[in-house]
Amino acid sequence: MPEKVVIIGSGPAGWTAAIYAARASLNPVLYEGQPTQYLLPGGQLMFTTEVENFPGFPEGIIGPDLMDKMRAQAIRFDVRVVSADITEVNFKKRPFVLKDSSGNQIETHTVIIATGARANWLGLENEQRLAKSGGGVSACAVCDGALPAFRNKELAVVGGGDTAIEEALYLTKFASRVHIIHRRDEFRASKAMQNKILNHPKATIHWNKVLTDVLGEQVITGIKLRDTKDNSESQIDLGGLFIAIGHTPNTDFLKGHLDMDDSGYIKMVHQFRTNTSVEGVFTAGDVMDPYYKQAITSAGTGCMSALDAERWLAHEGIE
């Protein structure tokens, strides 16, 4: 007997979709994935310490704790959770056929894809260690930059695109100074964004520099840089580091099956709807959102995708 809805992904979008689908008596199955070096079940919030901008938690909440609560709420409504990845999909056959990393196969009338996007990191050992331990290294200034730990300190942003400049400008509200580390001698960001940061009194641009090491044991104390032209080395004392070199949507297993943009984000075919290019397949969260990338917006689209799937099933007469 085919499932009514299968949800792929276990971040805020996936768990919210599961809660709504379960309360609509759709008896959903959620694939929460398996842990890797850069991704854990629960999504990017599993690498986040303090979350102060998710409504309902006036004192803030630790990222993993927030995801545990979402998971527990879904299980309360009897969501069936599978600790595996979906590795193959067949959207040409109806019901759809999915295969998972354990070698199992599942059929379903609808699918909600909420696999998220992983932050791109430099890959330095201490960068990863301090990011995972809450030691002052982050991949989201909007998420973490306003935390007390970063206020009135010298901070750095690595990157040269619009996202990096937007994050640097955001950090100027809280930091004593913001250093922008860029490997070339000009930004890729729009001219308007460039003008804002180049003329900002709190911003210092470090052209032609690559970050070679992150310093600090419990918390970050500084970074080491190498000049790309003369190979000279330098060091900056810091109280926080933000990596802003983009995100990669987790859509490799969907290539050739759904319409995506050039970066791999899933395209939606109707404005303010979560429908994808395949009828009966819906999407939610960062995997379809290269712009906002917030936990609360992901949860909102998770709600939308479950409602869209419910209405689609009703329209098709599937009960």
Provide structural commentary.
The protein is an alpha/beta fold. Helices cover 24% and strands 26% of the residues. The chain contains seven helices and 19 strands. The strands form five sheets. Strands 1, 2, 5, 6, 7, 8 and 19 form a seven-stranded mixed beta sheet that branches. Strands 10-17-11-12-13 form a five-stranded parallel beta sheet. The chain has a three-stranded antiparallel beta sheet with strand order 14-15-16. The longest helix is centred in the last third of the chain and has 21 residues, at 295-315. The mean pLDDT is 94.
Number of extended strands: 19
Mean pLDDT: 94
Name the helix and strand elements from N-terminus to C-terminus, one letter apiece: EHEEEHEEEEEHEHEHEHEEEEEEEH
Structural class: alpha/beta
Shape: elongated
Cα distance, first to last residue?
Answer: 12 Å
Helix content: 10-25%
Largest sheet: 7 strands, mixed
